[in-house]
Amino acid sequence: MKPKLAIWKFSSCDGCQLGLLDLEEELLQLAERVEIARFVEASRRVLPGPYDLSLVEGAVSAPEEVEQLRRIRERSRVLVAIGACATAGGIQGLRNFLDFDPVKVQVYPRPEIVRSLATATPVSEHVTVDFELHGCPVEKGQLLELVSALLAGRRPEIPAYSQCQECKAAGTPCIMVSRGEPCLGPVTRAGCGNRCPSVGRGCYGCFGPSEDANPAALGGRLAELRLEEATIRRWFRLFTAWAGPFREESLRHE
Amino acid sequence: MEQLVIDVEGLQQLLDRLVQQVYEVIGPRVRHGVVTLAPLRSVSELPAGLVEVQAPGSYRLEPMETREGVRPLFVHRVGPESWRHFLHPPAELLWCAERKDGHLRIHPRAAEAPRRAFLGVRACDLAAIAIQDRVLAGGAHADAGYLARRNRLFIVAVNCTSAADTCFCHSMGCGPEVKEGFDLLLTELTGGGEHRFLVEAGSDAGANLLRMLPSRLPERGELEERRRRLRQTAEGMKRSLPPGAASVLARNLEHPRWQALGERCLACGNCTSVCPTCFCSRMAEKTGLDGTRAEHWRYQDSCFNAAHSYIHGGVLRHERGSRYRQWLTHKLLHWQAQFGTPGCTGCGRCIAWCPVGIDLTEEVRMLGEVAA
Question: Domain A4-152 is in which class?
Answer without folding.
Answer: alpha beta
